[in-house]
């Protein structure tokens, strides 16, 4: 981008600035990183704004129920309103509604948990999860953000995209806590294998004794809308459950059932 183009972009951004909105969004984004909440003084310090403008904005966010105030009145935290609004988004809501029965059937067949992830701002957001039917298992928290670069979910989402979209996703990626770096050539090889096999299976880079199986949920264009992942844990007691190969077959079938291109072929 040349200097004139940059200046024009900056001028356009200045022209459409909404300072009050920016303050409110700054507060929401800050509080999203602090589940235990922050005092007003801590918010003022973190954002580098005056106490008066932060006070007025916080009062409006509390009044509109985007932010909650502690009983003592000294701490502010995000309410569940943002979460509720996000889940009203029709495409996500429809996908989750369709996926949950299929995910529940997989969990019962495989005796394993599973979760559904979508790309979101550089990483993978867990938008649905179903625990295994047994008395114990491994589940990923609903709303958790997991890495795009060192998880089966992230690799499958990256593999099943156009070259342009994949480059954009990689450019937007921000490393999460504990992320394991992966060389570019190794990542390219991994993504090619996923495209060839149609799924990703490997030992977890986050937990011992877990084998992650991830399968894409494809749109009409053949690109991944979401990814279905099961953290497979093998039983070592006398109970004989489905094997890893059987669980993988169940998961591939579930992802195919949810894929739009498969649904359209079946209808045709």
Describe this structure in words.
It is a single chain. The protein has 268 residues and is of the alpha+beta class. It folds into two domains: 3-83, Arc Repressor Mutant, subunit A, CATH 1.10.10.10; 87-267, GAF domain (Beta-Lactamase, 2-Layer Sandwich). Helices cover 49% and strands 16% of the residues. It has eleven helices and eight strands. It has helices at 3-15, 19-32, 40-47, 51-63, 81-86, 90-110, 152-159, 163-172, 184-197, 244-258, 260-267; strands spanning 67-69, 76-78, 114-120, 123-130, 145-146, 200-203, 211-218, 224-232. The strands form two sheets. It has a six-stranded antiparallel β-sheet, with helices on both faces. Strands 1-2 form a two-stranded antiparallel ribbon. A hairpin with a 6-residue loop joins strand 1 (67-69) and strand 2 (76-78). Helix 2 crosses helix 4. The radius of gyration is 22 Å and the shape is globular. The chain starts with a helix and ends with a helix. Mean pLDDT is 88; it is low at 263-268.
């Amino acid at each position: 981008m040349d200097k004139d183009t940059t200046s024009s972009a900056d001028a356009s951004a200045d022209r459409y600035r909404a300072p009050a909105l920016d303050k409110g969004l700054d507060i929401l984004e800050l509080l999203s990183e602090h589940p235990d909440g922050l005092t007003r003084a801590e918010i003022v310090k973190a954002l580098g704004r005056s106490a008066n403008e932060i006070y007025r904005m916080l009062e409006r966010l509390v009044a509109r129920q985007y932010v909650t105030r502690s009983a003592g009145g000294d701490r502010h935290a995000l309410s569940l309103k943002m979460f509720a609004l996000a889940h009203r988004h029709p495409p996500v809501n429809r996908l989750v509604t369709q996926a949950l029965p299929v995910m529940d059937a997989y969990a019962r067949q495989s005796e394993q948990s599973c979760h559904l992830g979508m790309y979101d701002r550089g990483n993978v957001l867990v938008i649905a999860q179903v625990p295994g039917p047994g008395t114990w298992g491994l589940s990923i928290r609903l709303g958790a953000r997991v890495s795009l670069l060192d998880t089966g979910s992230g690799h499958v989402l990256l593999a099943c995209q156009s070259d342009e979209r994949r480059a954009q996703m990689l450019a937007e990626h921000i490393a999460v806590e504990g992320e394991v770096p992966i060389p570019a050539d190794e990542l390219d090889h991994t993504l090619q294998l996923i495209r060839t096999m149609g799924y990703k299976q490997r030992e977890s880079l986050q937990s011992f004794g877990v084998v992650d199986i991830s399968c894409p949920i494809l749109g009409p264009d053949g690109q991944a809308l979401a990814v279905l992942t099961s953290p497979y844990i093998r039983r070592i007691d006398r109970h004989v459950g489905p094997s890893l190969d059987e669980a993988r077959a169940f998961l591939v079938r579930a992802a195919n059932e949810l894929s739009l291109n498969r649904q359209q072929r079946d209808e045709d």
